[in-house]
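SAMPLE LOG
Freezer: B-3
Tube label: C17
Construct: single chain, 291 aa
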Amino acid sequence: MPSRRFKQVDVFTEKPFLGNPVAVVIDSASLDSAEMQRIAAWTNLSETTFVLPASSRDADYQLRIFSPKQELPFAGHPTLGSAHAVIESGFATTHDGRLRQECLAGLIDLTIEETAAGKRIFLEAPEAKISAVDDHNRRLMQMALGLMRAFVHPPARIDVGVVWLVAQLESGKAVAALQPEMDKVLKLSIATNAAGITVFGKSDDEVSGLHVRSFAPALGIAEDPVCGSGNASVGAYLLHTGLVKSYGSDFIARQGMQVGRDGQISVHIDQHSVRIGGYAITCIDGILRTE
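STRUCTURE (predicted):
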């Protein structure tokens, strides 16, 4: 019976079970798309990834990313967790603290920092494509989130390989208090061809700069525990709107407390790009039997 190396990696945490898990299937070259989708539906995590040899000589490995329902061009925490897995397994090796991943969104550059707590891995998010949310969908977005007042700033539709409708709320406490109606979030996501809604607000916990939540029932995930692409989209939103001055160009975002997690994402914003990163830890290391 064919078997493949398999890891389940918790991302954006130094401690097991507080981040966002990703299932990583190594040695996946002989699997076809239908088999990958079936495995992703079986693991029932927000994402499952499949590591293959690179088809481009400019990349160290190729990654395919699946939610339980569909393949994704890019996703943040699966990219970082898979980089952790390929390094740990020896599938790929770093070059001067760098890796380059090939995925449907293109080539993703990763950097690895050695710290006292271990390896902290960063990725440079794909260039964001940003468009306005029209008045009709803005009202639907407000209703889906159960908000009684208008957004602090106009929300935006942000595409970093995964599309999010991004909005700022008046505070981290307002973000924490949200009780969205998932059927309305789903309907809006389908209408705007988006994964879902990501919201953020300034934190007052003396640990982080902002608090983030991401809702993605269209991907089969009511609330993503700790969302890399969502946080990359928030960074792109801050850059696009000029709100970087309110949060700074380097900060920690926290996410997942409402679902029993405590993910911490390092975000760096410069004039032209957004980098997100964090720690990762392997919680399951074994063999996946595929036939």
